[in-house]
């Protein structure tokens, strides 16, 4: 019996994560865009048989939500906690956690925020509109935190390329 290969991609640096945010800026973000991005994430997750929940919020309104087989209500709680980090800091939840780790501490120790309300774990990424700023967040929960983050980033890259030729 063969065992699957383990791919150990390096953890991205704070600088690489910040570069992702600078690169993944949208010209606009409509209700139709939310549906298209959410649907793309569902398609990508299904192809990978990823047991995730997916959420898109804009200006405090939930525009998209899907729960795929294997996800649980706990994933929705994680989504809310990670999304609150994006809303508070204007940066990806994984990046916020990475900034704390780079300083030799943790988000939980340093932020003094309730860990039942905020989680600086990977999977929530800011929806940033050119000339406007952060208007919402796209969030995935159900995989290890770096995999959640990478799934969202890959979907945003594909979405920008397919929708806007970026």
Please provide a written account of the structure.
- The structure is a single chain.
- The termini are far apart.
- With 166 residues, the protein is α+β, with helices and mostly antiparallel strands.
- The protein has helices at 14-23, 31-47, 73-89, 93-102, 107-111, 145-164, and strands spanning 25-26, 53-58, 61-67, 124-129, 133-141.
- It contains six helices and five strands; from the N terminus they run H-E-H-E-E-H-H-H-E-E-H.
- Helix content is 48%, strand content 18%.
- The chain has one domain: Haem-degrading domain (Beta-Lactamase), CATH 3.30.450.150.
- It is globular, with a radius of gyration of 15 Å.
Question: Which keywords apply here?
Answer:
5 strands; Beta-Lactamase; 166 residues; 48% helix; alpha+beta; disordered N terminus
Write a compact overview of the structure shown.
The protein has 166 residues and is an alpha+beta fold.
Q: Give the CATH H-level superfamily.
A: Haem-degrading domain
The CATH class: Alpha Beta
Largest sheet: 5 strands, mixed
CATH topology: Beta-Lactamase
Structural class: alpha+beta
Overall, the morphology is globular
Widest β-sheet, arrangement of strands: 1-4-5-2-3
- The succession of helices and strands, N to C, reads HEHEEHHHEEH
Mean pLDDT: 94
Tally of discrete structural domains: 1
Supply the number of helical segments.
Answer: 6
| CATH-defined architecture | 2-Layer Sandwich
Number of strands: 5
Could you name the ranges where pLDDT drops below 50 across 5 or more consecutive residues?
Answer: 1-7
Instruction: Estimate the helix proportion, in percent.
Output: 40-55%
Radius of gyration: 15 Å
Roughly what fraction of the amino acids lie in strands?
A: 15-25%
Compute the separation of the termini in Å.
Answer: 43 Å
Protein name: UPF0303 protein FHX78_114272
Organism: Streptomyces capillispiralis
InterPro entries: PduO/GlcC-like (IPR005624), PduO/GlcC-like_sf (IPR038084), YBR137W-like (IPR010371)
Family: Belongs to the UPF0303 family.
């Amino acid at each position: 019996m063969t065992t699957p290969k383990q791919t150990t991609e390096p953890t991205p640096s704070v600088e690489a994560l910040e570069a992702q945010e600078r690169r993944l800026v949208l010209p606009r973000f409509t209700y139709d865009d939310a549906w298209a991005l959410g649907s793309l994430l569902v398609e990508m997750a299904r192809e990978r048989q990823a047991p995730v929940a997916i959420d898109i919020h804009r200006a405090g309104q939930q525009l998209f939500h899907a729960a795929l087989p294997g996800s649980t209500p706990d994933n929705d709680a994680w989504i809310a906690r990670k999304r609150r980090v994006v809303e508070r800091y204007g940066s990806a939840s994984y990046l916020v956690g990475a900034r704390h780790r780079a300083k030799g501490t943790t988000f939980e120790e340093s932020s003094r925020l309730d860990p039942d309300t905020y989680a600086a774990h990977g999977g929530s990424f800011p929806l940033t509109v050119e000339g406007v700023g952060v208007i919402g967040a796209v969030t995935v929960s159900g995989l290890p935190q770096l995999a959640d983050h990478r799934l969202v980033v890959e979907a945003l890259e594909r979405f920008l390329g397919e929708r806007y030729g970026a």
